[in-house]
């Protein structure tokens, strides 16, 4: 069972476990925002006396933090719930409690439906109400089956505990920080505007305070998160309206913070100040995840992306002009309704023009309630599979070429964790690639100068220099 449901990276508390300590196992699906949320929920439950565990058998409470983006992701949850139900029955025979909670985007999208389909579930909580988790848990323990999927009026971030030093340390030298949630773009294939609600930015001072706290606890690299992170906007100390470029500028003044990244961006929100940040801020890593989804203008229009393929390519050109070292990453969907072979060829052509260092590509999945689900011209599964294969072959070729092009370069490496071999450490290149290095005398959290000596399919090899 444990290998069926592998643990997310949850922190161990500092306090030693006692026989009476209750334990929570959190399984995270989906995007980095869910990873961040899982950490915040773990912190909130720690205040309530729950210790995080990575062993399912030890858990008194299991939370599945779910993703609704594609059908497969959502269905996975129900198969896990089937296994957890059996476990709950076995526990009941021993007279032991075992509570099951569903959080995240499936919780938001399906609400009570989850209780109907999976009677073993005790509580269902959507992403906007995680700060109510301890209270919901109390009600569930009294036998109520709790569903919390309202969009809370209060800001959940004001009510969730900020990252604590001990937990942050245990999580490592890199951290996620959510700065923006929700989406108003309504791409016709996408559930996010329905599961995460409309766009909300956290205030600049709260973000800066959280970043400073992370750095005090030893974090060297922060990745700012948002469904549309570059739609972030806020008010500066002098009352002036600011965008993500200004926020990055402010964060890069934090001493001890060595590297900053952000994800995921929408092409429509890449403004001049953000592009300038890539020129002006040495701490901002030369890596940009900028999904385009398709290279066909007809399909882009049907997707409601509100830009053309040429505009996207021109935008990449403008960013590369100020930061020639930039690695581009993207997301693609094949087989959106109405996509012809010629449309798909336009996507292949765009990929050849841009040259991606990294990419994620998916077969279109019809999502209930989205406009795409009602569109004519749904593409047969076989055609989608065949196109995905061709696209992934091209993207893999580009990724391999990018990695091979790194061999011989001297770069700074942030050491993140022990490697497989004794004395070896694994770090990340500025372009987010894992790099293995023999770094004797160096520690996790150090930034070391290395020369890239080799490139494997998923990671690089390097030697320390100087
Ligand atoms: N906010 C980001 C994307 C968030 S979802 C953006 O605007 O780009 C992450 C990725 O999942 C998307 O970029 C898209 O490629 C993919 N995706 C979203 N809905 C999908 C669907 N219905 N079928 C297949 N892939 C989908
Ligand atoms: Fe989904 Fe589009 Fe919003 Fe991205 S921009 S989260 S793809 S609706
Ligand atoms: Fe999935 Fe929700 Fe993230 S649908 S991709 S977990 S915002």
Automatic annotation (TrEMBL):
**Could you give a GO molecular-function term held by this entry?**
tRNA-2-methylthio-N(6)-dimethylallyladenosine(37) synthase activity
UniProt-listed InterPro entries: Elp3/MiaA/NifB-like_rSAM, Methylthiotransferase, Methylthiotransferase_CS, Methylthiotransferase_N, Methylthiotransferase_N_sf, MiaB_methiolase, rSAM, rSAM_horseshoe
Q: What is its EC number?
A: 2.8.4.3
Q: How is the cofactor bound?
A: Binds 2 [4Fe-4S] clusters. One cluster is coordinated with 3 cysteines and an exchangeable S-adenosyl-L-methionine.
Q: Which residues hold [4Fe-4S] cluster 2?
A: 183, 187, 190
Ranges for domain MTTase N-terminal come to: 22-142
Any idea where the Radical SAM core domain is?
169-401
From the UniProt record, list the reaction(s) this protein catalyses: N(6)-dimethylallyladenosine(37) in tRNA + (sulfur carrier)-SH + AH2 + 2 S-adenosyl-L-methionine = 2-methylsulfanyl-N(6)-dimethylallyladenosine(37) in tRNA + (sulfur carrier)-H + 5'-deoxyadenosine + L-methionine + A + S-adenosyl-L-homocysteine + 2 H(+)
Give the UniProt subcellular location, in the record's own words: Cytoplasm
Q: Which residues form the signal peptide?
A: none
Which residues does the UniProt record annotate as the domain TRAM? 404-466
User: Keywords, A to Z?
Assistant: 4Fe-4S, Cytoplasm, Iron, Iron-sulfur, Metal-binding, S-adenosyl-L-methionine, Transferase, tRNA processing
The protein's required cofactor(s) are namely: [4Fe-4S] cluster
| SMART domains membership | Elp3
SUPFAM superfamilies with a match to the protein in the record: Radical SAM enzymes (SSF102114)
- Which Pfam families does the record associate with it? Radical_SAM, TRAM, UPF0004
Residues reported to bind [4Fe-4S] cluster 1 = 31, 67, 105
Q: Which family is this protein grouped under?
A: Belongs to the methylthiotransferase family. MiaB subfamily.
Function statement? Catalyzes the methylthiolation of N6-(dimethylallyl)adenosine (i(6)A), leading to the formation of 2-methylthio-N6-(dimethylallyl)adenosine (ms(2)i(6)A) at position 37 in tRNAs that read codons beginning with uridine.
Family matches, as HAMAP family: tRNA_metthiotr_MiaB
**Oligomeric state and partners?**
Monomer.
The protein's name in its UniProt record: tRNA-2-methylthio-N(6)-dimethylallyladenosine synthase
